[in-house]
Amino acid sequence: MNIKELIGETTQYDKKTALEIKKPKSWCKSVSAFANTYGGKLIFGIADNNEIVGLQDPESDAEKISEIIKNPSYDSRISNYKVEDFAFSKLRERYKKWTGNSFDEKDLISFGLANEQGYLTNAGALIADESPVMCS
After folding, report:
1. Is the pTM of this model over 0.85?
2. Helices 58-70 and 25-35 sit at what angle, rounded to 10 degrees?
3. Nearest Cα to 108, choosing from 93, 123, 130?
4. pLDDT tens digits, the chain, 136 residues: what are they?
5. Which long-range contacts (CB under 8 A, 24 or more apart) does 52-57 make?
6. Where are the beta strands (DSSP E) in 57-136?
7. Helix (H) or strand (E) holding 53
């Protein structure tokens, strides 16, 4: 791949000037989009004007990228709460209103709110009608 031929951003690749460690959402969204579609490439070290600016420490950045992607966030971790013990009527109602479609248990899995074994993620536990998670 000739990097100079890559102009703009497409659904097949995304360019970033630098690795933003403190704002991983800025580039993790691209990783997620690529993972949920046909794949793609995330290229760091390219400015918005397509100038190649490079990275200060590419090896360290590569390790940080792998670490961030491999370590799940708190909200995506599986809780000890079973889906069957909680209701999601508010979520179902909103989903129906916004999309016109019904919301069922497989959607909890699709949205990362539960796993296939029937356990809620921490995010799912927070969204449940009667959330078991205490917030301060």
Report:
1. no
2. 70
3. 123
4. 566 565 565 678 888 888 888 887 778 777 777 877 788 888 889 888 888 899 999 999 889 888 887 777 788 889 999 999 999 999 999 999 999 999 988 899 988 999 999 999 999 999 999 998 876 5
5. 52/3, 52/4, 53/17, 53/18, 55/18, 55/19
6. 78-82, 119-121
7. none
